[in-house]
Amino acid sequence: MKIGLWSDCHNFPSVPLMKLSAYHKSIGDDAELYDHTKHYDLVFASKVFSFSPDIDSDYPVQADEVRKGGTGYCISVVNGREVYDKSKDSMLPKEIEHIYPDYSLYPEYNYAVGFLTRGCPRQCGFCVVAQKEGCLSRQVAELNEFWRGQQEIKLLDPNLLACSSHEEILQQLAFCKYTYIDFTQGLDIRLISKDNISLLNRLKIKNIHFAWDNPRQDLTRHFKIFSAYTNVRDVRRKTVYVLTNYNSTIEEDLYRIYTLRDLGFSPYVMIYQKEACDRTHRDLQRWVNCKFIFRSVNRFEDYKY
Predict the structure, then answer these.
(1) Can you give the C-alpha Rg of the chain in angstroms?
(2) Rounded to the nearest 10 degrees, how much is the dihedral formed by the CA atoms of 166, 172, 175, 177?
């Protein structure tokens, strides 16, 4: 069969598509990234974001069959909150989920990417991970399922430190002595301890991400503990996601942003349901996330876009 593979991720490789490509090539099918000018026997469409355009938003799909899957197809907004509809869920079969990804699908990216754990116990109202993957963080893969010596690993785990075997996982990552590790989705700063910081110090970390989403939960103490014991000193490598437009005032947003900056972290503003936010939130995001501006203008009150 001739297989087309489409995703709404345009600046990052799609893990499901790489696995689907690897599987179908292994059984003799031809698989490639979707081209709307071609006809396919089967097209797989994968969406991460509920708000992004669908595969057929610009051109009709030329295919005998189209199969859609991914978080973006399963989310609906109910009373201002995103809800995950499991009835629409289409998980990859086991033999595809655990296959080594076809990285040749994205030759422009030279890193390994994948999940070692799934699930999160936090059940935050703005996040669908617990609804989708469960309230228990658990190990779901071994590192060699998606890494074979690449010089960088991008981990997509939603809450690795909440996994009961996270110390063993960090020890496994420590054996990748010549490989940079990027915790892309954020480690849970509330679960940081001297022991797991010591394990993190054994890793060759490219970037480490945390999050401070709840303005009514002061995480200053936890960030101070991490700063006291970590080997990561470059502020550009210590990013903290700051959720805005979700149960917080601008004053509460600024408190988190200013506090993180003073503690030597790099805040990064995320806007909940950005398509429906106001001008102030967009200005705040632009001021913080453009680091040249953020370093030049000390206070948001003085920022003029």
Answers:
(1) 20
(2) -50
Q: Tell me the three state secondary structure of residue 27.
A: coil
Map residue 116 onto helix, strand or coil.
coil
Whole-angstrom distance, CA of residue 282 vs CA of residue 284: 5
SS3 185: coil
Name the residue ranges covered by the structural domains of the chain. 1-103
d(CA 106, CA 94): 23
Are the beta carbons of 275 and 255 closer than 8 angstroms?
A: no
Q: How far apart are CA 287 and CA 299, in angstroms?
A: 9
> What are the pLDDT digits (tens) for 108-121?
999 999 999 999 99
Is residue 244 within 8 Å of residue 253, measured between CB atoms? Answer: yes
- The rounded distance, in Å, linking the Cα atoms of 40 and 36 is 9
Q: What is the pLDDT of residues 262-289, one digit of tens each?
A: 999 999 999 998 888 899 999 999 999 9
pTM (2 decimals)? 0.91
Distance CA 53, CA 6 (A): 12
